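User: quick one
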Amino acid sequence: MIRASIIGAGMTKFGTHADLTLSELFAAAALPALDDAGIGPDEVDALYFGNTSAAISENDTHLGPKAASQIGLAGVPTQRFEDACATSAMATKHAVAAIESGLHDVILVGGAERCTPASGLDTDEMTRVFASAASRQYEQPVGLTFPGVFALLTKRHMHEYGTTRDQLAEVAVKNHHHGSLNPRAQHGQKITREDVHDGPLIADPFHLYDCCPFSDGASAILVVSQDAAESFDSEAVDITGIGHASGGVPLAEQSAFTATQAARDAVGAAYDQSGRTADDVDFCEVHDCFTGAEVLATEALGLVEDGEGGPAAAAGRTALGGDIPVNPSGGLKAKGHPIGATGTAQIVELTEQLRDEAGDRQVESPSVGLAHNLGGEAATTVVTVVEARS
Amino acid sequence: MTAGEVPTYAEGEGLKHESWARALRDGVLLGQECADCEHVLGTPKSVCPGCSGRSLVTVRLPTSGKVFSETTIEVTPEGLGDRYQVGVVDLGPTRLLGRMSDEVEIGDTVAFDGFVEYEDLPGPRFVAEPTG
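Assistant: Done. Structure below.
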């Protein structure tokens, strides 16, 4: 079932944008999205804006009206979303519901984030900001970081299934290759397995190249009803399912470390809504904040059997040209991860791929794409199914 | 469980973070056990995640267990200094995150060994226990 449609998509290059304020950065994605749809701000009747960390990192809150005012939307209803790294997928979920209910007709959805040292905070300061998504009372005092969260999950996966460091490295090599084909990727350089192994340790088993970078960036999409989409000139794609589930905090109390159960629950709901199964998915963008996270995601989404995520990556099954291309954009790993912009950036990639506009990284004639956006210690996951119009 | 109710730290309203942390500073590891379904929690909640019951009794947690997963944090948050190891400890009825005093691996036996402190908040610390 078509729940809503996307008529415009835009994003900045991810990387360093220290010379732009948060609102200016958002404009650099929102205006291209409006232009892509061929509409002006006067046709937009709500802004759903995502940002995760500015309240802590920049002493900047109440961001909806600020972003709206920057792009000629002052006066429209606007709200800010914060759900850790799943922030703008969450904004998309609520936008779709608002379209379905008739609350709004044309919603600009997106996010912006400034995380690079050039934008303000050094690595140890930003590591502390990221760790704010962990339990304040039961995890932060122990010293858990976000590389640490996924290291704990991944080492358990290695223990239970025999996943190897070489297989993890293959995820990084693959996503850097994809990133080299994406002009908006923060890391456009190709790397080798040895580069991954030789990098400095961040939290074992993760070396530097197992980890996504700190990024500045923004992304935006325009969401309308299926019927309304036909009145615009741009090529629409359709959202046919959005599943959303949460997992327990603290992480230690989650039932199975290798399952990322919230992702399984979210994708189950998204498949039910869309009438699709994992076999129907032609490609996906998954939340590869760390190489191990992509392995866990491909299994949770049902794209490979449990325990086969590492071997599948090593065999090239998840590369462009493989049987299930994962992260053709380069993923968080190579494209970058400006936290609050990541969810809608995944949707931007789905939109461009489904329109056959992805250039050198184009998946061959896809009709069904899936985005998996995860927040915190796998405690929030939103899965979105987007389809081309036949 | 090594003991029943622990009234010293959780009178009346049941276990909250304040009393959990106060006990931890005193070298006592507290958790909760659901009176209805016996689900055990290493960190205080208001409702049992197992059965939705609200009769959560404060209990002393087991003080040793096996390392369920671990990692050594090399890039640390501001204020936490140099590298250190954290681990999830399987205490039997529940799991708990803690700082590891020694280099440990999955499956190693560790014992509760006091607390570490960050930004005026305590977190449990575990030390390797010789096996055999």
